[in-house]
Each structure stands twice: as C-alpha cells, then as structure tokens.
Amino acid sequence: MKLISSEFDNGQMMPEKYGYTEENVNPPLSFADVPEEAESLVLIMDDPDALEPAGKVWDHWVVWAIDPDLREIPEDWDLGSAQGGKTDYGETEYGGPNPPDGVHTYQFRLYALDKELEFSEPPTKAELEEAMEGHVLARAKLEGNYAPN
C-alpha cells in the first residue's frame, strides 16, 4: 500500500496551517494499492518525538471504520461513515502538530484490515491496535515534520 499527501513529501516539512494552534485541519491524503480483500481501513497519526517532552508517544488522530474503497481523504475531512477514536487531546477529531521543543516527525500510518472493527465507545490508539492484531493485510506510512512557531 502507498500513502502520500499533495501538501508535503515523505520526510519533509508539513505546512504550518495543519498545526494545532493554527488552522488545525488535517492534510489531504491519498492511498493506493489497498488489498481487494480489505474490509476496513484504519488511520493513525502520532508523534514519537513527544516521548521526551510529554513522556509518551502523542496520539494526534485515530480514525477507524474507513471505507476500503476510499482512496483520498480531503483536507479538513468530515469523517462521513468513518469513526474517530480518542486522541491525547481528549478529542475524537484531528489534533494537529504542536511540538513544544523543536522539530518533530509525525507518522501517518494506514492499515488495511480483513475485518470491520466494532467498539461501543471511541477507542484509544492502544485499544484499536489491540483489536487490529492478526487482522492487518497491509500497511503504509507517511512522515511529515513540523516545527513550533
């Protein structure tokens, strides 16, 4: 599977507007080569560089139950039939980059699953990852850097 953005290349700087204290809208994402047998998709955005200042990997965006026929997520996406999980901002929507101590690298990870997941309440990233175990058909990753203003 492939995951790209029209707004930044893998490993490059993300535009300022995607930051939490800026417009706080998600960047557009496109994906290709999703396995035909996929039943659902999951998208997770987190910040492993937050481990030092925050004491943990910071979860910025957790989305599950994405239609496997979808190939593009527009900027400022209304989830439609997809579902938002809990972020470390205490929300179920996109929470943009907000590094407190310099440039951080943000990971967008897309997973194709062989089943649809069900939760009675919005899951955390950890709960989602546990439910995905043994059901991942393919995965893709895109990294973008972001610096504080």
Structure explained in plain terms:
The chain has 149 residues and is mainly β. It has one domain (2-146): PEBP-like (Phosphatidylethanolamine-binding Protein). Helix content is 8%, strand content 34%. The protein has 2 helices and 9 strands. The protein has helices at 51-54, 125-132; strands spanning 2-4, 12-13, 29-32, 40-47, 58-66, 72-73, 83-84, 104-113, 136-146. It has a 6-stranded mixed beta sheet, covered by helices on one side. A 3-stranded antiparallel beta sheet has the order 1-3-6, with no helix packed on it.
Give the overall shape: globular
- Name of the CATH class: Alpha Beta
Give the count of helical stretches.
Answer: 2
Summarize model confidence as the mean pLDDT. 97
CATH architecture group name? Alpha-Beta Complex
Cross-sheet strand order for the largest sheet: 2-9-8-4-5-7
Spell out the helices and strands N to C.
EEEEHEEEEHE
CATH topology: Phosphatidylethanolamine-binding Protein
Strand tally: 9
- Percent of residues in helices: under 10%
Approximately how much beta-strand content do the residues carry? Answer: 25-35%
The end-to-end distance, rounded to whole angstroms, is 33 Å
Instruction: List the domain count as a whole number.
Output: 1
CATH superfamily: PEBP-like
In the predicted model, the low-confidence regions spanning at least 5 consecutive residues are none
Largest sheet: 6 strands, mixed
Radius of gyration: 14 Å
Structural class: mainly beta
